[in-house]
Amino acid sequence: MTSPMMKIVAPLLVAVLSLCAATAHAASDRRPAPPGAPEDAPPEYTRFTAAELETGFMALAFGSDLRVGGKPKGVRKFVEPARIAVLDQGSLSRGDRYKAAVREFARVIPHLDARLTDKDDDANVTVRLIDEKNFVGAMEQAFGKQVARDFVAKTDPQCMTSLKSRADGTILRADVFIIVDQGDDVFLDCAYHETLHAFGLSNHADSNPFTTLNQTRTVGYLSVYDRAMLTILYDPRMEPGFSAGEATAVLPAILKDLGSIVR
Asked: What CATH topology corresponds to 4-17+42-261?
């Protein structure tokens, strides 16, 4: 039963189009993609101006390019631990690789409490790893035929995340769908991309050359920039429900503490 203070907003559906075009930018402070990334993964940017970080955070943490239901009014994040159940349901077993990605997020993002669980009924994040032929059916089962079909017609996605949150910005639940049988590049790009969405970075920024949440890039690893985005989001000073103005007010102090990645 949901109390008046626990009012759930309608699910926010977020998709990534697995586009293969890479964005070419001449920039310093770059290094090769980390071990475990796809062979053709782009280099990793390692240092940013404060403006690049602030602009990116405000773009990624507010709004979404595809919504069903009410518009999110502010910052959204988990307050309780994110308990993640991974359902390895595809013809290729990729559960262990996805779990390694979750452990990476949990290890490197301060104040993000992300834990794997084997109990579906204990999870508030459910990740379904499925074959492409079962993708639409899985979404129909989760959200109903009309919502799923409208979503697919608009986006032709290969992975998707749905969030449910309270009016105060607290994320209550995330459902993630990732296709596993379209190659390593698609799987890894979706795995990192959708996990960023699940933790509260619900928008895309296709003009941003640094983030995995740029749909014109195929990345496939947790970049320094996206680590910074989640570090900002889960800093205790960035409270759930913050408006854009409130977020902007605390960003300078948070950015100051990011240290060497700010140039």
From this structure: Collagenase (Catalytic Domain) (3.40.390)
